[in-house]
Amino acid sequence: MPLRFLGALAIVIVISLIISRRNKKVREAAWSGVVTGVKHQRASVARDEDRLDNDWVTVGYRTDEGRDASMRLRMRVVRQFFDGRIEPGDRLVKKSGAYLPIREGIAQS
User: Fold this and answer.
1) How far apart (Å, rounded) are the C-alpha atoms in residues 109 and 107?
2) What pTM does this model have?
């Protein structure tokens, strides 16, 4: 029994290390670019029409270095950090140490 527990604990530790390393890479990355496309995805569960927090937005962008990438955000994150909207042509700047990019022209608190 203790051997199974130690094995399970080792697996949990390895998974935690992998997730934290990926999170660190995301936070350390710094880039700037332009939004190329925005795709809104509604939640697949039945809900009230006034609750849009479970909806997702996939934002495609092209960095100044020419790399195409995308990020998937919840609608509540778009409301909170992007002033309620994000559109093609918006300029995004991701600073090292930040988890999300900011849209240029929005005052950050």
Assistant:
1) 7
2) 0.68
